[in-house]
Structure prediction request, 854 residues.
Amino acid sequence: MSAGPSTGTVPTTAGGRAGPAGASVAGLMAEIADVGRDDARGGYSRPVYSVAEHELREWFIDQASRRGLDVESDRNGILWAWWDAPGADRRDAVVTGSHLDSVPGGGAFDGPLGVASALIAIDRLRERGLTPSKPLALAVFPEEEGSRFGVACLGSRLLTGLIDPDRARTLRDPEGNTFADVTAKAGLDPRFLGPDPEAVGRIGSFVELHVEQGRGLIDLGQPVAVGSTILGHGRWRITITGQGNHAGTTLMEDRRDPLVAAAAIVQAAREAALRHSGARATVGRIVPVPGGTNVIASSVSLWLDVRHADDAVTAAVVERIHADARRAAAVEGCSLELREESLSPTVHFDPALRHRLGELLPDAPVLPTGAGHDAGVLAAALPTAMLFVRNPTGVSHSPEEHVEDDDAEAGALALAGVLEGLAGRRV
Amino acid sequence: MSAGPSTGTVPTTAGGRAGPAGASVAGLMAEIADVGRDDARGGYSRPVYSVAEHELREWFIDQASRRGLDVESDRNGILWAWWDAPGADRRDAVVTGSHLDSVPGGGAFDGPLGVASALIAIDRLRERGLTPSKPLALAVFPEEEGSRFGVACLGSRLLTGLIDPDRARTLRDPEGNTFADVTAKAGLDPRFLGPDPEAVGRIGSFVELHVEQGRGLIDLGQPVAVGSTILGHGRWRITITGQGNHAGTTLMEDRRDPLVAAAAIVQAAREAALRHSGARATVGRIVPVPGGTNVIASSVSLWLDVRHADDAVTAAVVERIHADARRAAAVEGCSLELREESLSPTVHFDPALRHRLGELLPDAPVLPTGAGHDAGVLAAALPTAMLFVRNPTGVSHSPEEHVEDDDAEAGALALAGVLEGLAGRRV
Prediction:
């Protein structure tokens, strides 16, 4: 437990919600089904420290308290709900959890499924009469999506020192609020944001359950998988500069139109990724300047997202796109700049922990994921693992994301088995 | 002359500026070179009824008054400076002029060149001892660019009844101010905005001098051209709907990415325009939704601007792009909608007036323009014509727009010749 000044036990919320008796993952998910709905985009918009995400945190604190867990919020806004808080000498706690924030117009399950499943896993362990021999905790990490402040897994990065707290404090949301101001309003002291080696040192292993964000389990006909890797992932910003001009008066032959070059780059990204099995290359954001209907753009920025399990393939895909982009810009008489904004190598989850999960869940297939997760960030500091639960649409970061009730329950049972196996039975 | 309550003679501004003796177009342009500079964008930002545009109007009133012209502001905020105001029975006035407002970050010449050249043309006629046999006036039209209230040529549209005054009154600028409020602050009575058949009826012909917004005169090595047509011009909005999904977890094979289809459409627009000499097709605005770096877009909107002198060619270009767009969307498993947002047929300037200008300026080539102008709007109500002055950069709606001093002077001389020829010499 951190001794930082912002750490404290959160008071239990009194309330009339149903207690854990007879609870299910689907029942818990139904309790929060109306929080943060986004009528414009569909699905949910639950930015970190928004009213909606705050309501979800209160709900988690209430649910954890009903289960007799001791809840604390640490200096980085991470919630910890302890079944037997560890003494200062214990460095073997088993922790599970996920996040409650969402992308704009996201699905119901990305994040909350892992939190609800953790609560139900505790119920299942209690029903079996388990008293764990190691400390056990549920954790909720803030700003996993990076949708508000632009840095994914911000809470776990701060915890483990993977982001400079000075940089974190000055991050701004789309309205211009700094992370320092927003955390202060949320009751934290922004001066104490940052690495918390004591909190990290308590943890022996971390297991995150998450809705699958692809079609692996659909194709395998299985409800739950064990995670193997998180794909290496980079973001590059490409800026193409041409000649802004009048759309009506400028002959086609006289144009240096950066949007025509950008169009070729979008297609080059698709083609470069298709040359390597399992590679992904995406342009989801493109901004022409000035962006007028009757104006040839003077410049265009586009953002390139590339991922592959083999970091050398990621580099090769980007190199090929860069070469094609330079050619497309030159054909159009434009200049081009490519800048790396971030690059994370592939995360291989702890082999020993993954092997242990394989023993505990012998039927579960082993799957990689292309999405980033707090478990991937924490992997730099301690043994981590993931469980994935089948998503029958295969669609993620979208209202179409889904999990069947039976699969959600199977996921919680699998997580309970893993926690029991890792934490042991006190004798 | 309108008898509307907002009409009145504007008092002459006393001031220490240089009189018309020895004036030149370049000298007049230098007088306003510091008005409305835009340090952020470069060039000038002179939105209608802004401080900058108001200062330019005051400058025009001053310059016209120094030349002994009677200046009035009519019910629509159009300034008229009369050399011999017509009696109620005269319907043959010769009018020239242009506008003083600019696009954001525009050049110095788009608009003001036509106003300064009109003032200098009056000087040249006076120097020749001309007394015109027809009434002669200079006009300044507000909101030609449509940059503040979104409707181009708003002044001339109101004058000729081509826009419903109720709609005009409720137009809003980017800060949310209505056109009614802004015109009231500028001293007009917004109740009297609207068609003014009496003011239109006075005019026998209108000739607008304007900086060329393309490279026609560069290629011909000539300083001044007579306008033939304003290209027909349409705007279409294309919406492509695919499958929003996670950029990291979605295999390339499973994607229905509307931005990949949009990229093909941008290229199809270029190719379709190149199939027809003189056709222009531009995508300058493209908006992916949700527009996140790590999200495959669920939909993309793009705006297509197509122009050609032959309206049948414009239709053929759009039809071809539409067919290619449907194919590109189908290949990507996306749906596509194309909606016409506006369509203006090609304006052919009055043939008799154009023939007369050809006689008066036998060396001037005849050129079409791709840009809209008040002369194009007024063409629906009376004979209009245009003169274009060489722009050595060929660039428009940009700080790079330029006119050499000698060419500006040649333009004013050509305009003087046209006015003399049209207005006749009183004997």
User: Anything to note?
Assistant: The CA atoms of residues 241 and 299 of chain A lie 4 Å apart.
